[in-house]
Design a protein that fits this description.
single chain; 311 residues; mainly alpha; 15 helices; 71% helix
């Protein structure tokens, strides 16, 4: 009998904490933080969290990894967050989230080219279903689409998708854990956001106790821990499987809006939540693969030499 592969469910569950945590960002921002400071919030989330993780890991990039860390930090943090905020401000309600929900399809295409992970029809259909479900949850009565906002939304989704795939392709240096790799990216991303935030929003706003508490949550739980879990998941799971957890973020935001902020959920939104959640679950199912020669050989070695007692 072939040895059973270890269950990936605990790893998937831990990775899912990241998009669930990111889904709380809107509620924390609106209830605790100064208004109209999205870039400052992105900076405060990224840079202190990155410096904290680097202090814990006590590891700096070496050799070619200075360049690789800079590329990943830009794609996953420094370019992604400003473009995401720009699209959210310029597009009608929820449209930026809808464009972001096609991320699994972006990742599937890039993974086919860079990782040789050929997308299956099920993967493509699941990606379409996820985007449909998210659109039903977040879309409101829309005005005219803004071209700049739409391009920013597409670019932010492409940036994060490319970051996911390149993170998977490059892996990490020998002897370096996901904690250090996450710290490098957050620090570099935060440094890229800093001048943009200063030019666009000016000096930092005054902060009261509620804002300080909100920012501490964003730095520690929402960013340091969540991004570490996210990149840890990318390191150990297929890229498309990880990105199918992304719809949990808008779903979490919708549930929090209903539970904590008194926002109503329509029957159409509930249908969309069911579709998006179902697509997320389906995206975690891996097709059965035939046993490889290595597995068969290992199984044969584990059997007794005599004919008795084998399973």
């Amino acid at each position: 009998m072939l040895p059973k592969a270890p269950s990936r469910l605990p790893l998937v569950a831990l990775t899912a904490i990241a998009p669930i945590s990111w889904g709380t960002t809107y509620a924390v921002t609106t209830e605790f933080l100064p208004p109209d400071r999205p870039l400052f919030t992105g900076l405060v989330r990224a840079l202190p969290a990155g410096l904290l993780l680097m202090a814990i890991s006590r590891t700096l990039p070496r050799g070619a990894w200075w360049g690789k860390a800079a590329v990943l930090g830009a794609l996953n943090i420094g370019v992604f967050l400003p473009l995401l905020f720009l699209s959210a401000y310029r597009l009608p309600g929820g449209m930026a989230a809808v464009v972001g929900s096609v991320g699994p399809l972006f990742v599937a295409g890039l993974a086919a080219v860079l990782l040789s992970e050929r997308p299956t029809p099920r993967t493509l259909l699941t990606g379409v279903a996820a985007a449909l479900g998210v659109s039903l949850v977040v879309l409101r009565a829309a005005g005219a689409l803004d071209l700049v906002g739409l391009l920013a939304a597409v670019a932010s989704t492409a940036s994060m998708s490319a970051g996911v795939v390149l993170t998977k392709r490059w892996g990490r240096p020998e002897g370096v854990g996901p904690l250090a790799l996450t710290g490098w990216q957050l620090t570099i991303g935060g440094l890229l956001i800093a001048p943009v935030a200063l030019l666009a929003e000016g000096a930092p706003p005054p902060l009261d106790d509620r804002a300080i508490g909100g920012y501490l949550y964003l730095i520690l739980g929402n960013t340091a821990v969540s991004y570490w879990l996210w990149f840890r998941g990318i390191d150990r799971l297929p890229a498309t499987q990880v990105t199918f957890l992304g719809p949990l973020s808008p779903l979490t935001a919708a549930v929090l809006g209903w539970a904590a902020l008194g926002q109503a959920l329509t029957p159409l939104q509930l249908l969309g939540m069911a579709i998006a959640f179902g697509a997320t679950i389906l995206g975690q199912l891996r097709p059965r693969r035939p046993a490889t020669a290595e597995v068969l050989k290992a199984s044969a070695k584990s059997r007794p030499l005599s004919g008795a007692g084998g399973c």
